[in-house]
Write a structure and sequence with these properties.
By secondary structure, the chain is an alpha/beta fold. It contains 9 helices and 7 strands. The chain has a single domain, classed as Uracil-DNA Glycosylase, subunit E.
């Protein structure tokens, strides 16, 4: 898709925040431009920074296993992050860095137009539901405007806390069932949930 390739090129040359100064490579995102599922993580780690590809480290291996459990491969989905350059020492991205990258993420969502967007972990969740916690809302489809979101634990969480793995596996199975439905039942967003801080969708 030329528009997606153009976006990736713009990300690769972006200097809108300071993260590019310490990064080896930009990590725009990758996958099918016609994906029904779009996964959104927090930010690139060391291996992602080295390769310029998202989710290629240990968390990516967990994600690949979870996708295989519902009959999918990486090539079938689209994978992106909230920020497109690695934060130094894998620290959390700062709000200004997330805001600087927001335009790229929103454009990716618009271009791909997935059936379901999966925020992975609290930083991605906070884009739409800043007052919620991932432990409270994971595995529950929710609708914001025309977009259906299905928040899940970040795969890295299962590496740090193996007790989370069964919840992740269960949520993936539920997500697989959702994909087979023409109309996805989802809880509507309320102003109280968003806290009035929701960023524009596109």
């Amino acid at each position: 898709m030329p528009d997606l390739e153009d976006l990736h090129a713009r990300v690769a040359s972006c200097t809108d925040c300071a993260l590019y100064k310490s990064a080896i490579n930009a990590v725009p995102g990758e996958g099918s431009p016609n994906a029904e599922l779009m996964f959104i993580g927090e930010g690139p780690g060391a291996q992602e920074d080295a390769q310029g590809r998202p989710f290629v480290g240990p968390a990516g291996q967990v994600l690949n296993q979870l996708l295989a459990s519902i009959g999918l491969k990486r090539e079938d989905v689209y994978i992106a992050n909230m920020v497109k350059h690695r934060p130094p020492d894998n620290r959390d991205p700062f709000p200004g860095e997330i805001q600087a990258c927001a335009k790229y993420l929103e454009e990716q969502i618009k271009l791909i137009n997935p059936k379901v967007v999966i925020p992975l972990g609290r930083h991605a969740l906070a884009k739409w539901f800043p007052k919620d916690t991932i432990s409270k809302v994971h595995g529950r489809p929710r609708r914001v405007g025309e977009l259906t979101l299905f928040p899940q634990y970040h795969p890295a969480a299962a590496l740090h806390n193996p007790a989370i793995r069964p919840a992740l596996e269960h949520d993936f199975q539920e997500m697989g069932k959702l994909l087979r439905q023409e109309d996805i039942p989802a809880e509507p967003e309320t102003p109280e949930e968003s806290g009035g801080q929701q960023l524009s969708m596109f």
